[in-house]
Specification:
It comes from Janibacter hoylei PVAS-1. One of its GO terms (molecular function) is succinate dehydrogenase (quinone) activity. This protein is of the alpha+beta class. Helix content is 34%, strand content 11%. It contains 8 helices and 7 strands. The strands form 2 sheets. The chain has a 5-stranded mixed β-sheet with strand order 2-1-5-3-4. Strand 3 and strand 4 form a beta hairpin. Helix 3 runs antiparallel to helix 5 and helix 6 crosses helix 8. The longest helix is centred in the N-terminal third of the chain and has 14 residues. The radius of gyration is 20 Å and the shape is elongated. The mean pLDDT is 94.
Amino acid sequence: MELTLKIWRQAGPTAKGELVTYEVKDISPDMSFLEMLDVLNEQLIAQGTEPIAFDSDCREGICGMCGLMISGEAHGPERTTTCQLHMRSFRSGETITIEPWRANAFPVIRDLVVDRSAFDRIIQSGGYISVNTGAAPEAHSVPVPKEKADRAFDSAKCIGCGACVAACPNASGMLFLGAKVTHLGELPQGQPERGGRVVKMLETHDLEGFGGCTNIGECAAACPKEIPLDVISTLNADLRQAARGAL
């Protein structure tokens, strides 16, 4: 495959960025998108040019580190993480535009790398859960209905990649926040701090500069782990109950 790549280059957080065009050849359709960028970086290094900075870690769709806007779509044309997107999803001769996540809460560090530590601070503000950690409890001592257990596990699949924020026209982090709140809110261990947790995490979400949710649904459509949109409804319900003192 031969491709034309228009890639966002930005030397630092305060530097002016621009799209720079590159040509790549001999790209195998079986390469992942990040492997294709590796090939380009090898070419740039051989030419004495600064390689393109981008995030990656496990490259197995687990860690959530990778995340790019690919021709205007979070993670690209397939519903998966960028590292699991393969070049067979594109046509030889195609022009691909590659940009970092665009959100005030995710400032650009360099090129395609953004600072997503705002997600960490949201989680930190949720605090802890009150459980006895002195000894391992018997597995069946705290019964959990299967429906609630399944929903908690489905919510826990969120890897914090930020695609929901990147896809949202408002740059809202409510799908991420809803997933974290629902994960613990469905389990008995998460009940003691449930009300305070949702209030503190939402306050941090807003302070970090994320936008508000207007129920467009692009977040759930872009989520590589298929977090359902109804976790936001759970978040809103918990917030209302916390405001009434019911949680």
